[in-house]
Amino acid sequence: MQRHINIYHLYPAHLNLYGDRGNLVALQKRAQWRGIKVNIIPVEPGSKIIFAKCDLLFMGGGQDSDQKLVAADLKNRSVEMKKAVEEGMAIFAVCGSYQLMGHYYRLQNGEKIGGLGFVDLFTEAGDERLIGNAIVECMLWSPSKTLVGFENHGGKTFLGPSVQPLGKVVTGFGNNGQDKKEGAVYKNVIGTYLHGSLLPKNPWLTDYLLQKSLEYRSQDSNLEDLDDSIETGAHQEAIRLAQSRRHKRQSTRV
Ligand code: GLN
Question: How do residues 82-122 score in pLDDT, each as one tens digit?
């Protein structure tokens, strides 16, 4: 039987910064090249998610105003979503969505956007934006592999003791510019500040998500090797950029 993966894409009209949608293209292509069928189902506030059919949930980054807009809709889905997460459903959440996986995101004016609370983390807006290309040593594999992506966030995220970071910051700011942690992993939920798009130039993370999605539905998760010379070249070039350009902290004080 042909393998298949259903990817639910949450709020494409609201959460899509710095090429985040490219993550879907990477997932789709790398699956199709191996004969795996992929359906991408866009979900806007109010539309239905059939969790029994959702193998992977993807959410991109967004501005504070858009995060506010989708937060209530997301909360309405939290019970079903939490159940699926505990059973092993994979979620890949970038930046603004990553923040919404945690307890809350407190804006500069003190207003709190409530998150799903699946992942033990919270986010506080600082008075500067953390911008640049980041290199991360990612511990999802042993030995570790490198991830490289672009970050631009005002929120600073802090992980609770029970949560593992996605990786250790080599260059850039990561979660908060202080503790050298980037992203978070809880079961098969991966949150990260890295845009870019991230997945096309970090194909090992794409494959990781595909494998978790297949395993969740007890499908064969063996992925044959692909010719990754273009992807690896893009990865190396992004690393060169990250190492050669200064990262900046840009004040958001008025
Ligand atoms: N609005 C959030 C912040 O500034 C997330 C931004 C983003 O998704 N790039 O921290």
Answer: 999 999 999 999 999 999 999 999 999 999 999 999 999 99
Q: Which residues contact 111 (CB under 8 A, 6 or more apart)?
A: none
Ligand 1 neighbour 95 (Cβ under 6 A): yes
CA angle 19, 23, 27 (to 5 degrees): 160
Which of 129, 194, 137, 121 minimizes the C-alpha distance to 169? Answer: 137
CATH H-level, domain 4-253: superfamily: Class I glutamine amidotransferase (GATase) domain (3.40.50.880)
Q: Is 195 a catalytic residue?
A: yes
Atom of ligand 1 nearest to the CA of 62: 8
What is the atom index within ligand 1 of the atom nearest the CA of 152? 9
Strand, coil or helix: 176: coil
Q: How far apart are CA 69 and CA 63, in angstroms?
A: 10
CA distances from 55 to 7, 42, 105, 112, 154 (A): 6, 14, 27, 30, 31
CB atoms within 10 A of CB 178: 11
Distance 62 CA to ligand 1 centre (A): 6
* Chain centroid, CA 8 distance in Å: 14
What is the rounded distance in angstroms from the CA atom of residue 187 to the CA atom of residue 199?
19
Distance 45 CA to ligand 1 centre (A): 19
- Domains of the chain: which residue ranges? 4-253
Which mutation among 106, 108, 153 tests ligand 1's pocket best, with the greatest number of atoms within 8 A of CB?
A: 153
pLDDT in tens, 147-190: 999 999 999 999 999 899 999 999 999 999 999 999 999 999 99
> Between 203-216 and 22-32, two packed helices, what is the crossing angle to 10 degrees?
70
